[in-house]
Specification:
- With 577 residues, the protein is mainly β.
- The chain folds into four domains: 143 residues, no CATH class; 119 residues, no CATH class; 119 residues, no CATH class; 124 residues, no CATH class.
- It has one helix and 27 strands.
- The strands form six sheets. Strands 9, 13, 14, 15, 19, 20, 21, 25, 26 and 27 form a ten-stranded antiparallel sheet that branches.
- The two termini are 22 Å apart.
């Protein structure tokens, strides 16, 4: 079924449907009443699947409520909704236009004896479908060719602009006094960073020089010299929220020795690509032959949380007046567990005050915090992209004690990695599509491998019984070679056992692992994405008990990817007029 419009058509059929959404919003226990409740339609989209038109979207609900003491507060919710409308197979071959509006809102405030305060609402939406007949037989042909075509919301990097420039860098390298002659000088770039400041791009990093020289004792030696560099170039065609990808390589190098100095002139070829992360409806064709398979991200859930931390501190200061207090979040760590997110970190504060002598002074201190947040769909291995900041500070000094209320605000979204086949060409047979350019990682190969790793560990003491073995993968690395990949890691084993004196012992051993695996992919610019996990552990204690024979099976799903600029067809999203 095709969604569109914009063509002059005499014959059309308009149908109206209504459906209801019921919502329940929890409010604080001290809520007296609800003063206002506003609902807006943020966005919606549709997809035809199995003779059903699926309408899905998101609402924005704003509740203004009054607490005991007369304080007014607001709460914002963004619930998702779905509506399934049965349609015949014949209808799927027609072109249509959708309009969706909120027709009626009813709500009431409920208070129970158990201090549970809620707002219960009933939201009625009206869907208007304007159906047009096919323009010609091409529309019918499109339906057959792309019978499995779907749209999927994906998070991709939209291409904005590209600039290629050559940077001329001149440096003077200090040489040892005993060097008489330079045979060779090579250079590599390390730790390169790119930062955009208004219309300029600043490129910083290190140049690692490898110098082959002859000293005055007749010896040929290698020297390594590290020099920082900093260069700027103009790059105007970018948005304020754009990100930059830089590909830098040394294209030319010349050098000359002057006494105890090596003067170097090198040219760095810099390719700058500006992109912006966006979420868009993309045409996908998972079961068809057309399209390109890419790695992308898909949003599972989003989170908008605010909470307050209260601390009472005894400060060793003599003050007359509190001037100002600043606070920021530092050293944040996030842990994802089943349907929950643990946020922990440090809060750094700076207190400005006037002492008893009338002088302005400041005091710095840090506080730790932990917060458990509920988030449906959370599990280990997903990505959580977030912003956490101090929204407001309410400090109060009372006789050397600081009563501090810190209001924190977290906005984030939960994402998972997906492999999907996107439509990159369609010969004009998909209506209402837009061709956009994206920076994507094209999947050259995706496969799974299992590695059996047998090895021996000497315990150092004679073991009578093994109680527990815990093995973790540390420092995993993968490198693409010609037609194969080299996988290396370390297995950290913690073994608990009972020795022959019936004493509990614990030892830790680290084993280096290197495995060469066939891939049949020979592309130098490709990247390797490998995610090893321990699948199975088996062990056997030797007769004397002095060593442990281990068999570890690693499950290694991997992807070979190449970053490319790819044109992808996106779907025009219908919005309410």
């Amino acid at each position: 079924m095709k969604q569109g419009g914009g063509k002059s058509r005499v014959t059309h059929n308009k149908k109206e449907y209504t459906f209801e959404i019921k919502e329940e919003i929890s409010l604080p226990a001290k809520t007296l009443n609800v003063e206002d409740y506003v609902v807006k339609l943020k966005e919606f989209d549709s997809v035809y699947h199995n003779e059903e038109l699926i309408i899905h979207g998101q609402l924005i609900e704003s509740v203004i409520y009054q607490l005991e003491g007369g304080t007014k507060e607001a709460k914002v919710e963004k619930p998702n909704f779905k509506y399934f409308l049965p349609l015949s197979e014949q209808s799927s071959q027609l072109e249509y236009k959708l309009n969706l509006d909120i027709e009626q809102i009813q709500y009431k405030f409920k208070s129970t004896a158990y201090q549970k305060q809620t707002l219960v609402s009933n939201i009625k939406l009206k869907l208007i479908i304007t159906v047009f007949p096919p323009l010609n037989s091409l529309d019918s042909l499109a339906s057959n060719i792309y019978k499995n075509l779907e749209t999927k919301k994906l998070i991709l990097n939209k291409f904005l602009a590209k600039k290629e420039t050559n940077l001329l860098i001149k440096q003077k390298l200090k040489l040892a006094a005993n060097i008489e002659r330079i045979f060779e000088c090579k250079a590599n770039l390390k730790k390169v960073k790119v930062e955009k400041i208004e219309e300029e791009v600043m490129i910083t990093g290190q140049i690692i020089y490898q110098v082959l020289a002859l000293n005055n004792q007749g010896q040929v030696k290698h020297y390594e010299i590290i020099e920082p560099f900093r260069e700027t170039t103009y790059f105007k065609k970018t948005n304020p929220g754009a990100q930059l990808l830089a590909q830098n390589q040394i294209s030319d190098l010349e050098f000359v020795k002057l006494e105890d100095t090596l003067e170097v002139m090198l040219v760095v070829n810099a390719v700058l690509t500006a992109y912006q992360e966006v979420e868009m409806s993309i045409y996908t064709n998972s079961t068809g032959q057309r399209g390109e398979q890419i790695k992308a991200k898909q949003e599972i859930n989003n989170l908008h949380e605010e909470w307050m931390l209260t601390e009472e501190l005894i400060l060793d200061i003599s003050y007359k007046e509190l001037i100002e207090m600043k606070g920021q979040v530092v050293n944040v760590e996030v842990e994802l567990i089943s349907n929950k997110i643990i946020v922990s970190g440090e809060l750094s504060y700076e207190l400005y005050y006037i002492d008893l002598h009338g002088q302005e002074k400041n005091k710095n201190f840090n506080l730790n915090f932990n917060k458990l947040l509920k988030c449906q769909g959370t599990r280990e291995g997903l990505e959580f992209k977030y912003q956490l900041q101090v929204k407001e500070l309410q400090p109060e000094l009372k006789q050397g004690r600081l009563i501090l209320k810190t209001f924190l605000k977290l906005v984030g979204n939960l994402r998972e990695e997906v492999l999907t086949k996107v439509v990159t060409e369609h010969n004009g047979i998909i209506s209402q599509s837009v061709l956009d350019s994206f920076l994507v990682e094209r999947v050259l190969k995706a496969d799974k491998l299992e590695l059996l790793l047998p090895y021996e560990l000497y315990l150092g003491r004679y073991a009578k019984q093994v109680q527990d073995i815990d093995i973790k993968i540390i420092n995993p690395e993968g490198k693409l070679l010609t037609g194969s990949l080299l996988y290396s890691c370390q297995l950290k084993s913690i073994i608990n056992f009972i020795d022959y004196n019936d004493i509990e012992q614990e030892i830790t051993k680290i084993e280096n692992i290197n495995e060469l695996l066939p891939t049949e992919v020979n592309i130098k610019e490709a990247n390797l994405d490998i995610s090893p996990q321990i699948k199975y552990i088996d062990y056997e204690l030797s007769n004397a008990g002095e060593k442990l024979l281990l068999k570890v099976v690693l499950k290694c799903p991997y992807k070979i990817l190449k970053r490319v600029r790819l044109p992808i067809f996106t779907k025009k999203v219908s919005t309410a007029d």
